[in-house]
Amino acid sequence: MKKITALTCFVFSFGLTAFNQTYLTRNGNISFYSHTPLEDIKAQNNEAVSVLNIATSSIQFKVAVKSFHFAKTSMEEHFNTDDYMASSKYPKAGFDGKIDNIAAVDFSKDGSYAVTVSGNLTIRDVTKPVTAKGTIIIKNGKPTATATFTVKRKDYNVIGESFVQKKIAEEIQITVNCVYEVQ
Predict the structure, then answer these.
(1) pTM, whole model, 2 decimals?
(2) Full pLDDT tens readout for the chain, 183 residues
(3) Cβ atoms of residues 105 and 136 within 8 Å
(4) CA angle centred on 117, ends 79 and 62, rounded to 5°
(5) CA-to-CA distance for 75 and 29, rounded, in angstroms?
(6) How many whole angstroms separate alpha carbon 64 and alpha carbon 48?
(7) End-to-end Cα spacing for the chain
(8) Phi/psi of residue 104, each to 5°?
(9) Quick check: 100 and 110 in contact, CB under 8 A?
(10) DSSP string, 3-37
(11) At 74, which helix (H) or strand (E)?
């Protein structure tokens, strides 16, 4: 009887784990990089919130714009002004999309899986469709999602002050790295 009870508990707990298909992080890393002959600009944000639901293949990110940090304090101040991100008016940026080939990822097996993500990226007052190649790495049952892609800053009304236009690249490289926990 004890063996049957133990086996039933094991099967039940395994079943709950298998059906729990939502993962969350509150400390995802989103960074961006701009390169011009005059200056490199880098910023990091380690406070991105992201939800990955493998049952629906959905993936969302939200990030507080004021949580991006730069090597130079003056860059951080400029970044949050109305000429750039207007963080007082648009305090969050986000992505809402799907992993197009979620079936290619075996969430029960350690490994590295190439994925394609598509959805809508919102920066400031603009939402545009974005598609990016990425990787999901499964290690000890935990997924890590990574991707690097570029956006045209002017497409999102990130213009900047006229006297510094040559210091900011037209295309900004965005890198995402999120380690998820079971929700």
Answers:
(1) 0.86
(2) 554 444 444 434 443 344 469 999 999 999 999 999 999 999 999 999 999 999 999 999 999 999 999 999 999 998 999 989 999 999 999 999 999 999 999 999 999 999 999 999 999 999 999 999 999 999 999 999 999 999 999 999 998 776 677 889 999 999 999 999 998
(3) yes
(4) 40
(5) 19
(6) 7
(7) 33
(8) -75, -10
(9) no
(10) HHHHHHHHHHHHHHHHH--EEEEEEEEEEEEEE-S
(11) helix 73-79
Query: What burial class does residue 103 get, using C-beta atoms within 10 Å of its C-beta: 0-12 exposed, 13-18 middle, 19+ buried?
Result: exposed
Both structure tokens of 56:
């629906």
Return the closest-CA partner of residue 163 out of 89, 69, 83, 50: 83
E strand or H helix at 73, and its extent?
helix 73-79
Q: How far is CA 152 from CA 77, 130, 158, 159, in A?
A: 21, 11, 9, 10
* Residue found by looking up tokens 């701009």 in the block: 34
Q: Cα–Cα distance between 89 and 86 in angstroms, integer? A: 6
Distance CA 36, CA 78 (A): 17
